Amino acid sequence: MEYKKNDLVTVQIEDIGHDGEGIGKVEGYTLFVKDAVIGDCVLAKITKAKKNYGYARVEKVVTPSPFRVEPKCAFHRQCGGCQIQAMSYERQLAFKQDKVRNNLIRIGKFEEDFVDSVMEPIVGMDEPWHYRNKAQFPVGYDKNGKLITGFYAGRTHDIIANTDCALGVTENKRILEAVLAYMQENNVKAYDEKTGKGLLRHILIRTGFASGEIMVCLVINGKKLSAEEKLIEKLKGLVFERSCKAPVGTVGGLAESEMTEKKIVSISISINTEQTNVIMGKEIRTLWGSDYIEDSIRILETEDKVTFRISPLSFYQVNPRQTEKLYSLALSYAELTGEETVWDLYCGIGTISLFLAKKAKQVYGVEIIPQAIEDAKENARINGITNAEFYVGKAEEVLPEKYEKEGIYADVIVVDPPRKGCDEKCLETMLAMQPKKIVYVSCDSATLARDLRILVDGGYELKKVRAVDQFGQTVHVECAVLLQRRGAAPAH
Ligand code: SAH
Residue 443 catalytic? Predict the structure, then answer.
């Protein structure tokens, strides 16, 4: 049977694709159906037909899957930020666990039974909503010329008016409304990407979950915000309720953040006069309050805390609660006693490094972005951590150079690379250094599986793999992995 664009077909969804789409077959023809949930029977409209497979979207759900739930957000199909919001959270977790497992088998070429013996159950979120501490909202006009803010519709720059994203903190809504009201009352125009005219481009809001501190930063196409005192007045006037969302007794207990009073402590502008897709401009000017917010992350085992200073341009993990779980897990895999020398590659602002430093003799961090290293050093300082040193550079250059010239040593190497995984030269040097343990934190299980194969073939034993859900409602999943050296200790 030949299919073509706009054909309507009834299809039973039997699998989930990498991007969260439903997969089903009609007479041997495979369809990837956007917004269909595994277990659904749907009437699908074909959007693109190839010879043996095609893409489609749900026209109508004929028989809903037992895993289908009512999406929280009315815009989830248009927005594209949450690919699997219509799937129950439990089924989302099972999907992520499978995704990691399948990649280890298919790409890593590990035996199924072996994978099942090393994989621990995925760590889910206690509350898979309102978990993001950062959001950037574009500002613009709708078709009727009404001033709006919200999110870009998937793969476009059309703004969907939505101030109440279910992944962000609930306080965002009132802040955004206050900014829109300020704009209207003071005739401040939204920026227009096409003409390059207008002032306000984006509204960045970041919230410290443990501290309750909120930062509002307006990205503007100009040097100055008109009537800025009116904005400050409006934002300062906002009083937020003490929220207490998670039911007492959930795993990990009630997060501190949920008992904390939230308040705006920093209002700033970011100057971005370029015609570009890059959101933030490099120059930041504080209009009121502090230049940064603080937040802290706990090491769950010890309740020890590490505090971070976050300015509008700083990198910081967007789901701090799951970060606590992920990094605490990585730390427990490292099994530090206080005697170890640890290298933390791709260290960012040093989140893991500073965790490690609390339990190791000495930590060295390597990161490519100079500003992140500045932040890492500053964070070490405010936490009184003196046994962490940081280097700017590529992991695949800094590590080999230090190893070849200085013969550096590591008991444990931790890596947390971006999606593309570790560079080959970096893996090669790690193998040559022969640390007792390698802890691999990954945000992409496909490149993780590829790299694990290299490390295992190079003399390491894969001991533990555990997925941690950092991004509920989306298809992304993070992992922590423990590898142990097979042979005896190297001579140093
Ligand atoms: N653990 C860090 C985040 C790691 S994200 C934290 O919590 O802060 C991956 C980091 O790798 C990013 O900060 C990115 O800038 C950095 N990076 C990317 N390529 C790199 C390379 N070749 N060498 C070193 N760092 C790199």
Answer: yes
